[in-house]
Amino acid sequence: METFTVHTGRAAPLRRSNVDTDQIIPAVYLKRVTRTGFADGLFAAWRDDPDFVLNRNAHADSTILVAGTEFGTGSSREHAVWALQDYGFRAVIAPRFGDIFRGNALKGGLLPVELDQADVEWLWDALDADPTLEITVDLVRRRVSAGERDWGFALDDHSRWRLMEGLDDIDLTLRDESQITAFETERPQWLPRTLQGR
Amino acid sequence: MPTTTPATMAEKVWRSHTVRMRDGEPDLLYIDLHLVHEVTSPQAFDGLRNAGRKVRRPDLTIATEDHNTPTDNLLTISDPVSRTQIEALRRNCEEFGVRLHPLGDAEQGVVHVVGPQLGLTQPGMTVVCGDSHTSTHGAFGALAFGIGTSEVEHVLATQTLPQQRPKTMAVTVDGVLPEGVSAKDLILAVIAEAGTGGGRGHIVEYRGSAIRALSMEARMTVCNMSIEWGAKAGMIAPDDTTFAYLKGRPHAPEGAEWDEAVAYWRSLATDPGAEFDAEIRIDASTLAPFVTWGTNPGQGVPLSSAVPDPAGFTDPAARSAAERALEYMALSPGTPMRDVSVDVVFLGSCTNGRIEDLRAAAEVMRGRRVSPGVRMLVVPGSARVRAEAESEGLHEVFTQAGAEWRFAGCSMCLGMNPDQLSPGARAASTSNRNFEGRQGRGGRTHLVSPQVAAATAVVGRLAAPADLAAAA
């Protein structure tokens, strides 16, 4: 996983709430068996609208997405995270995220940043006024800054550490493999097994 | 650990699966059952291969083909990209020793229909799947939730998942559901009340006399849609209804083990005096057939009311979402929901593709015809549900009415396989999501119960069975 410490870049204001993962990437784009190649499907239904934010020149090379509340609700498809990353996004700022999307993003190194609705609206207005405005997302200090403004955001220490170090969860877990094995010996015998007759 | 402190069911299941608890880290949970399908697993198996890892517990893993399969035949997947994905699952299951129920198998079907009907989903278990509707299995008092592909790989490799402990919420539904009001109406009403983010960060326990009175299949419908209001999981305490459903299923315990299991299952219910972090109370007697008008599952109203006016929403985000939803749905404020005509009716999915759903719809359609110009797809949730329906003659009720009787799969729920809405087409659908383009690009979805789906197919406009009786 790519590490994340501090990122500065241009941002795209997506003035919509409830952008579910079907909007981020429709199911018809989920047929690939690879982890890359999903950029074409990103916001597919909106991409042929010339007014869509990513089709405006000033926002085309954005690396930060500033979206409305309940971003990434719905389907568990991690392809939504991959599509955003394939397009070039490193962070998404929104008032609230769908739980599964947020977890997938943290696993993959796409930083989900929660700011208050009013701060997100301030960013939208500022980006409309000046599309070249750069936003800095500082995971080390857990702060977002843009122009004269600066906000703190919450992220648990463990997730922050994993992102900063680019650590693989499976490796971390396997450090405790002896505990997993010990747990398995205590499981009741009647629990179902898929490979047995019953 | 002190056992005298009253605990919720969610806390009991969580604790009993905690492999590792360490300050400043998520708990490491053991996973009892991992369900796998073709769409969210190929990259996870690739990850195992690249790291030289095995599936730790193939005996706690089961795969089926559902999302990307056709429902008009069992032999040919005409789209080469879809076929490649299905073939990847078959190769991966073969290589890693995972049991697979492929297209054409007697146990193939939608992953959340297959697990329960095999008796693999049992109370007190942890169940995960790379699919958000894994919450379905909570109907048995299991802790069940959807995960992403990185987590699928993690479970395949370690049979565990690091998880932050969620909060708990009670949704207490007391009273008696009125005649003609189903579990689907109940959960759509809950979501409209709570909003799409209302359950976020919580494991929800549905309780109260109206929940106790539901069948297992109706409970699955309720828990299935927990994710649609953002909940981590939905659970219902196991009781005699649960045990009666499980008894004799292929993977249910037998003999002395059955007795041991039931004793344990009975201990799972939330203790008297246990506290939830939040609670919602609903009076079942106030509920009515419910339909959605917008593009998220929280945008619903009783069938007897009208399309709402966005101007009436006080929250600016909700107002602009409503305005955009009405534009997408091509609906005007004030239009009675019963005046909305549909092109397609879809009966099926992990929400409402079980035998009771098909029976309820067939009862409405018996001796009636699908309205001219309406296409109705009836898609059993699994091959076993299809066979059971055929043994009861339900398929004849549907086909004589002019509906299509199809093979099992996710079908028109998600706009991935060949069953899709065409742009601008409007559907009444028993599935779980009315997102823009969910059932096919440009398609418009109204979420409904099986009973409302059947009546709507007959009338050609959104309707309840009572409307048919009145007309007859």
From TrEMBL, chain A:
Q: Which GO terms describe its cellular component?
A: 3-isopropylmalate dehydratase complex
The Aconitase A/isopropylmalate dehydratase small subunit swivel domain covers which part of the protein? 1-117
Q: Which Pfam families match?
A: Aconitase_C
What's the family? Belongs to the LeuD family. LeuD type 1 subfamily.
**The protein's role, per its UniProt record:** Catalyzes the isomerization between 2-isopropylmalate and 3-isopropylmalate, via the formation of 2-isopropylmaleate.
NCBIfam families, alphabetically?
leuD, PRK01641.1
| Subunit architecture | Heterodimer of LeuC and LeuD.
Protein's name according to its UniProt entry: 3-isopropylmalate dehydratase small subunit
Organism (species): Stackebrandtia albiflava
UniProtKB/TrEMBL annotation, chain B:
Name one matching Pfam family. Answer: Aconitase
Looking up InterPro entries in the UniProt record yields: 3-IsopropMal_deHydase_lsu, Acnase/IPM_dHydase_lsu_aba_1/3, Acoase/IPM_deHydtase_lsu_aba, Aconitase_4Fe-4S_BS, Aconitase_4Fe-4S_dom, IPM_dehydratase_rel_enz, IPMI_cat
Keywords for this protein: 4Fe-4S, Amino-acid biosynthesis, Branched-chain amino acid biosynthesis, Iron, Iron-sulfur, Leucine biosynthesis, Lyase, Metal-binding
**Highest rank taxon of the organism:** Bacteria
Q: In which pathway does it act?
A: Amino-acid biosynthesis; L-leucine biosynthesis; L-leucine from 3-methyl-2-oxobutanoate: step 2/4
Top-level EC class? lyase
| Alphabetized GO MF terms | 3-isopropylmalate dehydratase activity; 4 iron, 4 sulfur cluster binding; metal ion binding
> Which cofactors?
[4Fe-4S] cluster
Reaction catalysis annotation: (2R,3S)-3-isopropylmalate = (2S)-2-isopropylmalate
Where does the record place the region Disordered?
Answer: 423-446
Please name the PROSITE patterns in this protein's record: ACONITASE_1, ACONITASE_2
Q: How is the cofactor bound?
A: Binds 1 [4Fe-4S] cluster per subunit.
Q: Which GO BP terms apply?
A: L-leucine biosynthetic process
Q: What is its EC number?
A: 4.2.1.33
Protein residues bound to [4Fe-4S] cluster: 350, 410, 413
Boundaries of every Aconitase/3-isopropylmalate dehydratase large subunit alpha/beta/alpha domain copy = 11-460
Functional note:
Catalyzes the isomerization between 2-isopropylmalate and 3-isopropylmalate, via the formation of 2-isopropylmaleate.
Subunit structure, as described in the record: Heterodimer of LeuC and LeuD.
| Similarity-based family | Belongs to the aconitase/IPM isomerase family. LeuC type 1 subfamily.
Full protein name: 3-isopropylmalate dehydratase large subunit
What organism does the UniProt record list as the source? Stackebrandtia albiflava
